[in-house]
Every structure is written in C-alpha cells, then in structure tokens.
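[scheduler] slot 2 assigned
[scheduler] job type: sequence-to-structure, two independent chains
[scheduler] chain ordering preserved from manifest
[runner] begin chain α
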Amino acid sequence: MTEPELQDGVGVPDALQRLWTPHRLAYVQGETDDKNDEPKGCPFCRLPEKDDAEALILARGRVVYAVLNLYPYNPGHLMVVPYRHVADYTELTAGETVELAEFTQRAMTVVRSVSGAHGFNIGMNQGVIAGAGIAAHLHQHLVPRWGGDANFMPVIGHTKVLPQLLGQTRDLLAAAWPAAT
C-alpha cells in the first residue's frame, strides 16, 4: 500500500471481519414491500401461519406463542410473542400479560430441563431507539446463560459458537414443553 492510501483510510487493516449482505440494502432504504409496522409484512404476524417446525415455533398458547430466535445469542435463545400485532408492553391486555408471563416461566423450566442453563437474560427492547429490531410487534427475549459462555471466541475470534442447529434445538425444546410444570 502507498502512504496516501493509508492516510485517507483506504486499505487500513483492522480486527473486524466483514459479512457482506447487499440484499439487505433494499430493506435498509425502505424499498421493500415487507413493512414490519404493518401486520401483513410483520414476521411475527406471519410465523403462526406456518408449520411449527418450519417457523421454529416451540409452543402455542391462546394469545401468545414461543419461538426460537433466528439469530440466537446462545443456544435456546427464544422469544415469547403475542399473536396480536401490538408494539408496546402497556398495550397488552390483562390476558396477554398473564400468558406472556406464564410462557416465560414455562420457557425457563423447559430450557433448564433440556440444557441445564445456569441463568437467563430476559427482556424486551421497546422501540427502535431501545434496540428493537422489529419494534412494531412486541416480543420478549429469553436468553439462556451458562458459566463461561462469554469466553474468548466472541471477544478475540469475533465468532459465536453455537453447538446445535436451530431445528435440533427446536425439536428438543418443543418436546419438553408439555412436560414442564
């Protein structure tokens, strides 16, 4: 490299690997028909229309369902989602709030029984500014945690190790769901 290339930042190496996703540009620029703020384009509204295994749905309730996260932080990372297209926690009905809480408790029991999780991160990102990827449809994350799960791989290697395919995780958790009390 020449000195001018280094000075203006072109070709300067860093420690980050790049994952190029040019197909996402249309979404980022708002050029797609899939608008998450409308029920017809919302993935959380469309998932229940699919087969459970295909959609990675673990269990269905009256007003909420549990589904694996397509981009998990850890194995067993799932979400509890109301069927109704609602953005804010304060907009849930009393019945939705209760079943969301009950499904979260059930999910903890199921994940512990299948994987021996030591703890959990549970939460919602309310609004785009708070980090919600799909802000128009409320969803609560449940991320299983184990001692030492935040090791050198993501820090040094910039790689997340997931020891099981999503379909396998889904099958194990879905099978254990009815047995959890």
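[runner] end chain α
[runner] begin chain β
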Amino acid sequence: MKLHSFRNYSHDLETVVHDTWITTKVKSALTRAEPALGMNIHVKTHAGTVSLSGRVNTHRQCEQVVALARSVPGVVEIDARDLLTHVFTPGSHPVPPNAEETTERRPSSEDQDDH
C-alpha cells in the first residue's frame, strides 16, 4: 500500500515540476520576443495545458503570444480565451489599462476649428 502511495505522490510531483518548467519556458520566450509581453501576459500551466491571460495591443501580438507558447516543448494545449486585445476607437487617445486618472483634457478632433 505504501509503495502505491509513493508512486502516486511521485507522479504528481513530477507533473507539478514539469508544469513549472513549461511556465518558465513560456514566460522566457515571451520576454525574449518582446519584454512588454513577458510583463503583461500571465502564464499558468496544468498538465501541459498553458493558460494565457492579460492584455496585448494588437491581434498580431495575440497570435504571436500563442505561437511562442505553442513552440515550447511539452505544451499540449493552449487556452488563450483570457488573452485580451485593447480596442481603441478611431480618434481616441489610447490609455494603458492601469493608468492613473487625470483631470487633464486633451482636445478631440471635434474641438478643432476647420480653418
């Protein structure tokens, strides 16, 4: 009975170590490709499935993040449903998601005179 428990514990520990290794490799790949990706993307791995979350600026960056994660050996599947892309309206001024609010008002295109 004890031998079975030890094997089960050993297998679980091996899976956790392998998942941690995959997470580290994915984060490293993101940071090497573009330091901002490594900072803004959260990576979790469970049984070889890599879950990506956070924000990127473009759909191309989203595809890049998924491709980089997929290129890491040991990755079985990618879950990128929590990986979001900033959406900006034309004419608006992009603001980072965690920017402090300010009372400063920037003139919009409607405020300018047609001279």
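[runner] end chain β
[qc] chain β: Confidence is low (pLDDT under 50) at residues 98-106.
[scheduler] slot 2 released
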